[in-house]
Amino acid sequence: MRADLKYRRVLMKVSGEALMGDREYGLDPGMVTRIAGEIRSVQELGVEVCMVIGGGNIFRGVSGAAVGMERASADYMGMLATVINALAMQNELERHGVHTRVQSAISMQSVCEPYIRRRAIRHLEKGRTVIFAAGTGNPFFTTDTAAALRASEMGCNALLKATKVDGVYDADPMRVPGARRFERLDYHQVLSDDLGVMDASAVALARENNIPILVFSIFEPGGFADVVQGKGRYTIIENA
C-alpha cells in the first residue's frame, strides 16, 4: 500500500443517472466500463473500495409515488433497480480483473450475497470491491442514506460522491453560468443552506460518525484516483 494515500478505505456513491451517460434511460455500457476502470486504478493504489449505486436510471421510488403509486411499493421497486445496476457493475469490474462481491439488503441468494457486515469487511480486507445493493432495505430511505450508513458500518475514511460536476456549487452550474464553487464546507452549512449535496439524513449520519464527504466528477478521467490521494478538484465536507 502506498504511503501517500490520504484515504485507505472509501465508499463511493454513484447515482443511477451517472450510469445513463448521454442516454435518457437505462445503462450506458461505455459509462459502466469507464467507472470500472476508475475503480480498478484506485484499487491498484492499495485502497479498499466499496460502493453504493442508485437506481434512478431505471426507476425512482419518489417519482413512482408522485404519480399515485404507494410510496413503500415504489421504493422497493427502486431498490430492485439498484440490484440490476450492481450486477452490471460487478460484471464489468470482473472483466477488468477486479474481484467483486454484491451484497443486497434484500435477501436474494440466487444472484448475490445477503448483507452481512463482518463478511463485507472481510471481503474488503482481502482486496475485493464490495457493492452494496438495495439501499438500506427499508422504504422511505434513499441510497444517499444507505451510502452514509454503509460507510459508517465499514469504518470508511471517506464517503465519495461521484457526480456530473467537480464539486458543490451554490446553484446548478449547468444552468447558472456564474454559480459559485466551494472548495470546503462543513456539515452544518450544507444542512442550513440546503445545498442539496445529499439527503439531510445522510449528511447528519456522516457528521455523527465524522466521515468526510468528498464530491467530485466521475466524468473527469483519473478523478477518483486523484481524490483518494488528496489531489484534483473536489469539494470536501467535514467538521469545521
Description:
The strands form two sheets. The chain has a nine-stranded mixed beta sheet, sandwiched between helices. Strands 7-8 form a two-stranded antiparallel sheet. Strand 1, helix 1 (29-43) and strand 2 (48-53) form a beta-alpha-beta unit. The chain has a single domain, classed as Carbamate kinase, CATH 3.40.1160. With 240 residues, the chain is α/β, with parallel strands linked by helices. The model has no long low-confidence stretch (mean pLDDT 94). Helix content is 37%, strand content 18%. The protein has helices at residues 29-43, 61-66, 71-95, 117-125, 143-154, 187-192, 200-208, 223-228; strands at residues 9-14, 48-53, 100-104, 113-114, 129-133, 158-163, 168-169, 181-182, 184-185, 213-217, 235-237. Helix 5 runs parallel beside helix 7 (200-208). It has eight helices and eleven strands. It is globular, with a radius of gyration of 17 Å.
What distinguishing features does this structure have?
alpha/beta, Carbamate kinase, nine-stranded mixed sheet, single chain, two-stranded antiparallel sheet, 240 residues, 8 helices
What CATH calls the topology is: Carbamate kinase
Write down the secondary-structure element order: EHEHHEEHEHEEEEHHEHE
Query: What gross morphology would you assign?
Result: globular
Gap from first CA to last CA? 30 Å
Helix run count? 8
What's the CATH H-level superfamily name?
Acetylglutamate kinase-like
Main β-sheet, spatial strand arrangement = 4-3-5-2-1-6-10-11-9
What is the C-level CATH assignment? Alpha Beta
Radius of gyration: 17 Å
The number of distinct β-strands equals 11
Structural class of the secondary elements? Answer: alpha/beta
State the helicity in percent bands.
25-40%
Instruction: Give the low-pLDDT segments.
Output: none
Q: Kindly state the mean pLDDT as a whole number?
A: 94
